[in-house]
Design brief:
Length: 481
């Protein structure tokens, strides 16, 4: 596993990386470590660097969290060592703080209300300021380097006579993206930030409740989907049932990350009331309506661009064809995050089928282009396999800015669309033609009322003011504040 590389971006497969997946369960009479495990298993795409589960019995919190995939961190005997019907789980890709064991979540914190465990998806942009303020106000000592430690400490030390008051206080102070699962010794608390940037949903399971980043995790567990949490909502689940409050003081217009719709979330998850697979089909159809081109077959870059390609093919009335086979057993593709290993990774991952491709005009669909490493290598492969023409349609707009809300994009220098025109990119990647979806087309496809999604990485307009470029290792220098 890759350790800290200073401010080097560890993203290796030319796709943006979601920060984390979270799950929480309160199911009386059941051992929820298994529930959390299978929930995390379904959310593995949201983070592959570390995994952790915390459960509570009586006064004791049991915790297991370390680097590795969910299946590497947990075995049957580990789960047996995590007793209790109340638990939370977390799988992580680091966007703030290094990729090390000590930042693996859930994180523990203690205060006047006892010990809590916290799992976080998102990115708090004022965490560095809060560390300094909380050191003065609460005497907090920070020993880790992630923004989640700040959140955990804030919930543990914040004033308030109940958890709703504590959550409202925390929402007043935290800026940015945070979907949270928090476990006290007898309660499960779920929080979605006032902008609703990261998803979070609620389900019922065997007389209890489950919360998870995505509905696909609920499906996997056999839970019944109830609803997505509102922005600014806090849920408290305990033996008395479930209670919800939306803190209106902190609530802002909904600004969910539009990249969840394009790429991050599983296609079988429901986001903003719509199945992501169908939204992705509309994205593909929309880019073809904006930029039609003649071709013999439509090819998606597997697996993430398949729904977009299927939607485009239907709109274009050109047959959708599987022309590239993805090696399903390749996980993360890097050894070291340099250009050479990225190129090698693409070859290891994809194999084009000459018999399907030779002599044909291809319309290749990609869900997004970050650096362009993957699409460039894929086009070379397709030409070697005999493609007559390669036209590329991207089912999202050019990525021109970095993300500040929990997604590891690349640095501004690495983002190809921030540094080249579409004509220059067409030549650079070696396509016969290239076109991106417009921002208007994107918003039409996700059926978004104006300003109801964050589109910052495409437009540079973020739902709240941000620093121009964020360093995910920003806390490494300020440890032990
Ligand atoms: S900047 Fe882009 S990736 Fe980040 S939250 Fe906004 S839409 Fe999502």
């Amino acid at each position: 596993m890759l350790e800290n590389q200073g401010s080097i971006n560890t993203n290796s497969d030319d796709k943006p990386h979601e920060e984390c997946g979270i799950v929480g369960a309160f199911v009386p009479g059941e051992s929820v470590a298994r529930t959390a495990f299978f929930g995390l298993f379904a959310l593995q795409h949201r983070g592959q660097e570390s995994a952790g589960i915390a459960t509570s019995v009586g006064d004791k919190i049991h915790l297991k969290a370390r680097m590795g995939l969910v299946s590497q961190v947990f075995r049957e005997e580990t789960l047996t060592g995590l007793p209790g019907h109340l638990g939370i789980g977390h799988t992580r890709y680091s966007t703030m703080g290094g990729s090390t064991d000590y930042n693996a979540q859930p994180l523990l914190a203690s205060g006047q209300r006892g010990e809590i465990a916290v799992g976080h998806n998102g990115n708090v942009i004022n965490a560095a300021d809060l560390r300094i303020e909380m050191a003065e106000e609460f005497g907090s000592k920070f020993i880790k380097t992630s923004d989640t430690e700040v959140i955990a400490e804030l919930f543990a030390k914040a004033p308030g006579s109940d958890w709703f008051e504590v959550s409202a206080y925390a929402m007043r102070r935290l800026k940015g993206a945070y979907s949270l699962v928090i476990m006290t010794k007898n309660q499960l608390i779920a929080v979605r930030d006032p902008l609703g940037i990261r998803p979070l949903c609620l389900g019922t399971l065997n007389g209890g409740y489950v919360v998870a980043s995505e509905t696909a995790a609920l499906d996997n567990l056999g839970a019944d989907f109830v609803r997505e949490l509102e922005n600014g909502e806090t849920l408290i689940i305990d033996e008395n049932g479930i209670e919800s409050k939306i803190w209106s003081g902190a609530r802002k217009p909904h600004a969910m990350c539009v990249f969840e719709q394009i790429y991050f979330a599983r296609p079988d998850s429901i986001l903003n009331g719509e199945l992501a697979y169908e939204t992705r089909q509309r994205l593909g159809a929309e880019v073809y309506r904006e930029h039609p081109v003649d071709a013999d077959i439509v090819v998606g870059i597997p697996d993430s661009s398949t729904p977009h390609a299927v939607g485009l093919a239907a709109e274009a009335k050109i047959p959708y064809t599987e022309a590239i086979i993805r090696n399903r057993y390749v996980g993360r593709t890097f050894i070291q995050p340099d250009q050479r290993s990225r190129d090698q990774g693409v070859q290891t991952k994809f194999n084009p089928m000459r018999g399907v491709i030779a002599g044909k005009r291809l319309l290749v669909v990609d869900d997004s282009i970050v650096r362009s490493t993957t699409i460039t290598r894929v086009i070379k492969m397709l030409r070697r396999a005999g493609a007559k023409e390669v036209h590329v349609r991207v089912a999202s707009p050019p990525i021109k800015s970095t993300c500040h809300f929990g997604v590891d994009m690349a640095t501004l220098n690495e983002l190809i669309a921030a540094n080249k025109t579409v004509e220059e990119i067409t030549e650079y990647i070696g396509a016969d033609s290239l076109a991106y979806l417009s921002v208007e087309g994107l918003l039409r496809a996700v059926r978004a009322p104006e300003n109801s999604y964050c589109t910052g990485c495409f437009t540079g307009n973020y739902p709240i003011p941000v620093q121009l470029e964020m360093n995910k290792m920003g806390f490494e220098a300020t440890q032990n504040v």
